Amino acid sequence: MYATERQQLLVDRLQQDGRLAVIELAEELDVSSETIRRDLAVLERDGLAQRVHGGAVAARGRSSAAGPTLAIPNADQKGRIARAAAAHLPAAGGSMVLDAGTTISHLVDLIPPDRRLTVITHAIPTAAKLMAIPSVELHMLGGRVRGVTSAAAGHATVDALASVQVDVCFLATSAASPQHGLSSPDSEEAAVKRAFVRSARKVVALFDASKFSAEHVFAFASYDDLDIVITDKAADQREVDALRAHDVEVVLA
Known about the structure:
The protein is α/β, with parallel strands linked by helices. It has helices at 3-17, 22-29, 33-45, 75-86, 102-108, 124-130, 155-160, 187-199, 237-244; strands at residues 19-21, 49-52, 55-58, 95-98, 117-121, 136-140, 144-146, 151-153, 166-172, 176-177, 181-184, 200-206, 218-221, 228-231, 249-252. It contains 9 helices and 15 strands. The chain has a 7-stranded parallel sheet with strand order 6-5-4-9-12-14-15, sandwiched between helices. Strand 2 (49-52) and strand 3 (55-58) form a beta hairpin.
């Protein structure tokens, strides 16, 4: 089971049970407790879980007039965003860079098996999926692999992108605001994403509506850097209008 698949399973369990236990999951999935803790760290970073002693509980979304709600997107939501993104895959003979993230992992599943593409990624789970597509020429970026994301980061990763020019970059984020753009809590992760943006002729950002109006310390792309944002229909109209004011095409999946 790939890390993205395991993390989706944890999200589904949180939806059902509201709580996860590290030891029980490690035994059930036949992985180490540390692997489960890294998965929970990813979910917490994305606002999907809150870690507690021995496991995690479901995170709660921002309060609204209707009260707090669970902020756990399901596989259908990610699938809708990925399917909309598939319309922007390069034509045969094209090239792209793929960021780390569960929605982008869903996008990989939609690559036509006979479409010849050059694909660059720093995400190990994504690379593993791409290796199964015979028409894809895969380039894996090196660097220090972060346990939280299972993706390479650091100077080596950024330097490898210095001479890269691709047709499309599919970009993920855990925060988006008009003032700060897209941002990350990790400086090395932000540096890689910034290099991704510079490497592409077209930048397509994929994220659900819960990421709006959030800000992390390290910005990696302003709204002016984006060509297309694909999000879900729960996006606030003010957030959509802010993107369109920067000539960003917004797709509500």
